[in-house]
Design a protein that fits this description.
The protein has a single domain, classed as Beta-grasp domain (Ubiquitin-like (UB roll), Roll), CATH 3.10.20. Helices cover about 15% and strands about 20% of the residues. The protein is built from 2 helices and 5 strands, in the order E-E-H-E-H-E-E. It has a 5-stranded mixed β-sheet with strand order 2-1-5-3-4. Strand 1 (about 5-10) and strand 2 form a beta hairpin. The model has no long low-confidence stretch (mean pLDDT about 95). The structure holds FE2/S2 (inorganic) cluster. FE2/S2 (inorganic) cluster binds near residues 42, 43, 45, 74 and 88.
Length: about 110
């Protein structure tokens, strides 16, 4: 499928940023390319920093890939509270199934 996908990033303060993302890039890359603050992505997507931590909404249920052991381990080290909906956004690919998904950015990534 071609064309852009609309995804949203929401700060815990409630501020919401809507971005258009190309299918196939990571959710982290979509944030960085659109200057969304709060997704630090220090390791550039190598799954070794946990500064791209997000909380996923219900649109993503059953759509996101299984979490790898590496991602699971890194989430344990994330600065902000780990929740049932926590994922590392560098491990998530934009696809049409994520249209209108919301990713909440934790208050801190360090
Ligand atoms: S960018 Fe480092 S773990 Fe996602």
């Amino acid at each position: 499928m071609s064309g852009s996908i609309t995804i949203r990033f929401r700060k815990e303060s409630g501020q919401q940023i809507e971005v258009q993302a190309r299918p196939g890039i990571s959710v982290m890359e979509a944030a960085v390319m659109n200057n969304v603050s709060g997704i630090e992505a220090e390791c550039g997507g190598a799954c070794i920093c946990a500064t791209c931590h997000v909380y996923c909404d219900q649109v993503t249920e059953g759509v996101l890939p299984e979490m790898s052991g590496e991602e699971d381990d890194m989430l344990d080290m994330a600065s902000a509270e780990r929740r049932a909906t926590s994922r590392l956004s560098c491990q998530l690919r934009v696809s049409d199934k994520l249209e209108n998904a919301v990713f909440v950015i934790p208050e801190n990534q360090f």
